[in-house]
Amino acid sequence: MVFIISLVLAILSCFFNTPRIDSIDFKVIILLFNLMIVVKAFEKYSLLDYIAIKILSRFKTERSIGMMIVLTTGLLSSVITNDVGLITLVPITILIAKKSNFDPGWIIILQTLAANIGSSLTPMGNPQNLFLYEFFDISLKDFFVITGVFVALGFIWLFILNLKNKNIKLDLDLKSVNLSNTKVIIYYLFLFLIIILSIFRIVDYRLAFIITLISFIILDKKLFLKVDYLLLLTFVCFFVFIDNISNIDNIRLFFSNVLVDDKSVLVYSSLISQFISNVPAAILISSFTSDFRSLLLGVSIGGMGTLIASLANLISYKIYIKEYKDSNYLLTFHIVNFLSLGLFLLLGLFIV
């Protein structure tokens, strides 16, 4: 659905301006592809499940398990992207809930917040971070200075919200996950390191891309079919659409009138994210401001709020609703998220 919308918008925008091939940031597309395919390898060999269950099996109460699920989701999301963090850990939360006979809605809502907050920490944590990191050529030091404060405050907020979970013991026995073919897993971890170094601009991204292609051609060609190419094409469509509309005089005039300082960039990027999600919001507003600090913080905060503010919100909702049809999940989700959005917008105004 997101791809279809982005495609229609890209096509319609071509009636206003001639599309340019250099409007597409191929470096971002390549970096995303590298991340996607190596994470698919981790999923195939159950590495992420292994890590998660190893961590969670050490805790016994609803509150402590809830906190560790939330923390693990946030930390994994900062490394393997927020959507993969949720796809991996929300099913484990549901498994724990079924074994212990409780509704996991509250924990999953906190997991979703944690994925959005945790993924904001690093350039590879989510697509908008990666785009802004490359588009503005942000240094790692500047990047972490901006995101570190937000993430630290975010995890304090998650700790407070988790106190709602009862401090009762759960009779829980999670089956351990056995890793097969550890030599291949070790190689994929090495490949992942190369990809991360290419994101950090230590290794040339083109070299990392070639190594990634050769590795999967030799080791597992079938994983090429598992990559979410529609997401990559969605990015291409967004690049074309936003480049086209950013050259329309009335639109340029509007944004030049409203994006007048760092606080307006923060607020508008957060609010626009509520309606079109934070990925296209980041791409859109980047065309009209040089204030990457406020924009990066704004779209990070903007992942809170509506269900469509971040694609991660939709992922966890879809997983939850398959198992728990009759629930007040959406109401609770929006109460918590709008409260979080308001709180962090206020804090953000003091940070920028």
TrEMBL record:
- Origin, by domain of life? Bacteria
Q: Which residues cross the membrane?
A: 26-43, 64-97, 143-163, 184-203, 223-245, 265-289, 295-317, 329-351
Q: Can you say what this protein is called?
A: Citrate transporter
Where does the signal sequence lie? none
GO CC, sorted alphabetically, is:
membrane
> Does the record bear Transmembrane in its keywords?
yes
The record's principal subcellular location, in a coarse class, is membrane
Q: Per the record, a Pfam family?
A: CitMHS
Write the record's keywords in alphabetical order, separated by commas. Membrane, Transmembrane, Transmembrane helix, Transport
Q: Which InterPro entries match?
A: Cit_transptr-like_dom (IPR004680), Diverse_Ion_Transporter (IPR051475)
Which residue numbers delimit the Citrate transporter-like domain?
Answer: 4-285
Membrane topology field:
Multi-pass membrane protein
**A GO biological process held by the record:** transmembrane transport
Q: Does the keyword Transport apply?
A: yes
